[in-house]
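Worked example 4.2. Below are the chains of a multi-component assembly; read each line carefully before continuing.
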Amino acid sequence: MGGAQIQTCLPLCLSTNRRLKKIMYIGKKIRKIVNSEAGFAYLVLIPIVVLIFFMAYLPAIQSFRLSLMYYNVKLPWKTRFVGLSNYVEILKDSGFWQAFWRSCYFVVISVSLILSIAMGFALTLNQDFKGRSAVRVLIMLPWAIPPVVNGFIWKWFLNGDYGFLNGLLYQLGIISKYRPWLADPFSALNWAIMTFVWRFTPFVTILLLGALQSIPPEIYDAAKVDGAGIKSRFFYITLPLIRPTLVIAMIVIMIYSFTVFDEIYTLTGLDPATKTLMMYDYELTFEKGRFGLGSALAYLIGIFMFVMAYFYIKTIYREVEH
Amino acid sequence: MRYVKHLILYFFVALILIWSLLPLYWIVLSSFSHPVDLYSVPPHWIPTRVTLENFKSILITGKGFRGGGGITATDLIRKGLYNSLIVAGTTTLIMAFIAPLTGYVFARLNFPGKGILFFYIIGMIAVPSWPVLIGLFSEFSKYKLLDTLRGLIILSVAYRMPFDTWFMKAYISSIPRELEDAARIDGCSRLGVIYRIVIPTSLPGLVAVLITSFLFSWNMFLAPLILTYTLKAKPITVTISEFVGQYYAEWHLMSAGALIAIIPPILIVLVFQRYIIKGLMVGAFK
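Applying the procedure described above to all two chains together yields the following structure tokens:
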């Protein structure tokens, strides 16, 4: 059967010799485009530009449109344009403000805890000791695991009936009775922060370690000769020199801690005690089906994020230029 | 004095290790322990008998699971694992192909609109993902991408673009370009240069990019939570979260499930450790 096909195809090919030439001509042209700098660049970038448009910019525009409408998935016939009233409704909502301050608390505590812990880790890991490379790898593990599983690990770790923390404190004689650590609202929020801090510290540690290693050791030697102690060496040499990295790390932590979702989702779910802005918006949009209102809140969160990301990129650009 | 200094140093190292590994040890301990050992006050810190029964329950028999809707525990775990492997694996493969290209384009070529295009791609970082996700939901349902592996792959590839492009651009820029120029003069095509010279010389950077891409798509949760609704496409992160809700107090079984979900990323970190730390230090961004 294959032979027959070729036989019928042959005369057809010959008769379309002109077409073939055209195809070859186009082929040559394509090769020329591919080999020119601009042509090659556009060939690579155009599909990516389209992809990013559909996956990021267009949905961002669409949800902005949604934020100007009354749109409840459960009451689709009521959909109508309402202008900025979604934004007004949110800003007047006391639940929003509670979630907002909770998020701010989350960010402030996360930034200070992570920066100080990671600083301690980086300073320690910058010393010479046996098994240093192994330790460096092991501390990366919390960073690699899925945040949503991280939330579960801590939920079980803190469990009031059989959890690790209770067992440990009981064994050490610090508590005489098991405690439900996640039952009290304030303590639940703090433990949610702790969960995030645990996952995010390794990343910041590695960042700071990189910065510490880029400091030439001669500076320390010179300072030692001049009689500077550990403390003054840290405050007058180390800190100023790694300041750029500290700023970058701080902004990264701010961005990520402001939008923590996964950990809280499994740790406490939609518990009011840990309802940060993200949890609040998730509930509003996907539990209550109020897409319009949810989009408006998403945009308010987005504005905070944008401001932070703007400073992040600006800082990086400035540091790169240095 | 020196001795004391060392002692303090090792004390701190021990503290760091305890902090980083204790919660993980708890999960490992819980998933290999017999319930009797685990549910005592206080628990047995080292199990009296190591058992694989918990893994057997969630992977083969599904014992102890009370989830409804005709979905068994083994389905949740197995399907979730499969979906995650497909999504993360495909994303990584696609990035292995694209990242060197975009990195090369921005590091080596000159063309009109270069600055704008670079900003267009990097600017994605500043577009907050949360409002985007709400918009994506309606877009996905329009293009029939809701609840498909295809949709998740497209999404994670798109969201790896800015970091991977940025990283590869920086990495390729740091390599001398003489070799490429020589190959070009010898008649090597542009693609040939990329695959024969640029990729081999920037391999450490590329590996770092691919590892972070894999981890990113493996760990994705909020997007698939919203964009998938059956086992056809739910990744392991989503099925685990349901799992946790439906096993009630069977913590030893849930721990075994959680351990299964964290094994691939942990293995990757352990195997490719060198690249990750170097990559993070060079790149300074995730």
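Take a moment to check your reading of the output against the notes. Chain B touches chain A through 92 residues (CB under 8 Å). The radius of gyration of chain B is 23 Å.
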